[in-house]
Specification:
With 184 residues, the chain is an alpha/beta fold. Helices cover 60% and strands 17% of the residues. Strands 2-3-1-4-5 form a five-stranded parallel β-sheet, sandwiched between helices. Helix 2 packs across helix 3. The relative contact order is 0.20.
């Protein structure tokens, strides 16, 4: 039986950093849907060829294709970062986990106050020279995240799978909170 962890949280919460560390230290395969899509396109796989025109248009890749990509990448122990993003994706993922006999260890919600998120993302934009990330666009991204993710938080809370973790503090402290929340 496999094991899975899902990371949820707003942009700038540190999900990617923490998911990567958990993956590295505990032998979980980190699955980022964006990375998977870009890799398939770069390698010219049949799925990559199918999603390339969709991505080139700036459209969202349909759920069926995303799930096919994830199915192909599954491992005994894996972390999902950036998926699911919608209720239909969460429901489809539940079916996939049941079908593959994979136990969901938990859905980690990394919580960070909005002002701290804005501060972090402005600093990151400055360090990376991302002129498109100004305060107005950052706040809009956080608003969209809140609208789209609230139903997922409720969904996983009702299932008893949601693990709320305070995302403010030193990275080691946040990591310790995540491991404690998951019991690993």
């Amino acid at each position: 039986m496999g094991e899975a962890v899902i990371f949820l949280g707003p942009p700038g919460a540190g999900k990617g950093t923490q998911a990567a560390r958990l993956s590295e230290e505990l032998g979980f395969k980190k699955l980022s849907t964006g990375d998977i899509l870009r890799d398939h396109v770069a390698r010219g796989t049949p799925l990559g060829q199918q999603v390339k025109p969709i991505m080139d248009r700036g459209d969202l890749v349909p759920d069926e294709l995303i799930l096919a990509l994830i199915r192909e990448e599954l491992a005994d122990r894996f972390i999902l970062d950036g998926f699911p993003r919608t209720l239909p994706q969460a429901e489809a993922l539940d079916r996939l986990l049941a079908e593959t006999g994979t136990r969901l260890l938990g859905v980690v919600l990394v919580e960070v106050p909005e002002e701290e998120l804005v501060r972090r993302m402005l600093r990151r934009a400055e360090l990376e020279g991302r002129s498109d990330d100004n305060e107005a666009t950052i706040r809009r991204r956080l608003e969209v995240y809140g609208e789209k993710t609230a139903p997922l938080i409720q969904y996983y809370e009702k299932k008893g799978a949601l693990k709320r973790v305070e995302g403010v503090g030193a990275p080691d402290e946040v990591y310790a909170r995540i491991r404690a929340a998951l019991g690993i």
